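Illustration: Methyltransferase domain-containing protein.
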Amino acid sequence: MLEGRAKLIEKWGPTPDKVDPFPSHGEFYTIWDFFLPSFNCPHRLERVGVMGDGGKWVCGLERIAHKKKCVMYSFGINGESSFEADMMKAAPGCELYGYDFSVNSFGPEIEEDSELKLRSHFFPFALGPKDAHSPVDDPKMYTLRSLMERNGHDFIDVLKIDIEGNEYDSFETFIDSFGREPLPIGQLQIEIHVFKDQPWNDFAKVLKWWEKVEAAGLRPFYSESNLVYTNLIRGARPELIEYSFINIRGDHELVSSHPRRLH
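Result:
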């Protein structure tokens, strides 16, 4: 896959800075053709949550479901929590930590289920590349590592991020904070945005970010273009896409039959 990506860059660049994310002169590619999900989930693969926008592809839910204690973080709620609710129903040992400064609670899928709500914790915070949560900061911003420390967690089984273009800097900061150590996550469900007239509408920048994600041990095992967005915003480019990654480093249920990590 890496060799194929290099050849595709040479064909349409020939260097990364010359690649147009969404060409409009008859070229047969988009930015997403350079980042195909080339890794296989070694366990059961299933889509969790509502059909359509909101559901996510998950690897090895059956292995997470048997854990006595597991942790799920969700950034970007926007009034819809079917993915989180269905994950928690399948994995009764999971606790959910949700963050979104634009709403006041989880969606009705959790708020109207008393059992799920007992295992859910909502905070109106923003995920960001730095900590800014003094009394005058609005919204209050935390890095992912700071939130883990605040909650007393050293591992996240399932990490969902959908924060409208702020995913790049936020997740890069998380990677950098661990240096060469394995990232303390099992898998990542993330929506990536390449909005027109914004800084990340730049193939070379996205490529550099993606290569950092790969170097950290994350491998994409599924992708799903957000066609709901494309249909709603007629004439819009296919700027939104969902990716699911598995962490092939570390010692956890998705990469080891007998992980030393006990929760």
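Reading the tokens back as a structure: The domain at 40-247 is CATH 3.40.50.150 (Rossmann fold).
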